[in-house]
Amino acid sequence: MGVEWIAEIGSNHKGSSSLAFRLVKEAVESGATIVKFQAGRDPADPIRYADDFLPDAFKWCESYGVEFLASCWSWDGLNLMQKLGVKRRKIAHQQANLEDPITALTLAEDLPTYVSIDLLTGWGKKAYNTWKDNAKITWLKVNSMYPTYYSPVDHEYPEGWGYSDHTHGIASPLAAVAHGARTVECHFTLDPTEETIKDNHFACTPDEFSTMVRLGNEIARLGDMHGDSFRSTNWG
To answer: E-assigned strands of the chain?
Structure first.
């Protein structure tokens, strides 16, 4: 079983379709199997707004042979995903609560859906307890306090679970893969020193992302060969 590598472009495109295309291209060349955007942001926020060029981004991903994905922050964003025919959905951890109407609409579509969830928060626990029997959900464990320089990695990733990263570096994602995560989402940037978008500071560069993919795939291969013994053996 391989690893799904999600390059979260988020708002690191800064509202520029040219930069968004470059990010998609570099993410694919770095080993991403899924490239993720955010849809339905307020058009008055030109740095985060991307809906105008997301149809193009969908086509770019198609041409590169990778999956296009987006989290939806409004009905307009969800409607755009429906028009494009996007086959999977993503619910961000901020929206993984029982009160969000866009989340309710998303789950009502009954499509395969990634849900980032922080089980240490009250709303995260409620969401998991409410939706845990939904077979269409792939859960991604996340630390909702970010950016962070260190995030303890959960030692238990049930089959089908994954990890959404907000840490500096690639150690935490690789540790998650070693513990069984088979979907990894990491923010992706071309310039971590750029200060307009806070996500740039902890996002992976192309070199970091490609190194993570190479090592993570090998770790997953070894883990799948040896099964639970690989993760539970006391090497001391």
So the answer is: 4-10, 34-39, 67-72, 89-91, 113-117, 137-142, 162-165, 183-187
Query: At residue 97, what are phi and psi to the nearest 5 degrees?
Result: -140, 165
In percent, the amount of the chain with pLDDT more than 90 equals 77
Q: Which residues, 6+ apart, have CB-to-CB distance to 49 below 8 Å? A: 15, 41, 42, 43
Indicate the domain borders of the chain: 4-232
User: In this model, does residue 191 exceed pLDDT 70?
Assistant: yes
- The fold adopted by the segment(s) 4-232 is TIM Barrel (3.20.20)
Q: Can you tell me which residue has the tokens 């899924």? A: 34
Distance CA 88, CA 106 (A): 10
C-alpha distances out from residue 139 to 18, 114, 150, 159, Å: 32, 6, 21, 10
SS3 assignment, position 143: coil
pLDDT per position as a tens digit, 83-135: 999 999 999 999 998 999 999 999 999 999 999 999 888 888 999 999 999 99
Q: How far is CA 135 from the centre of its chain?
A: 19
Residues paired with residue 139 on neighbouring β-strands, in sequence order: 115
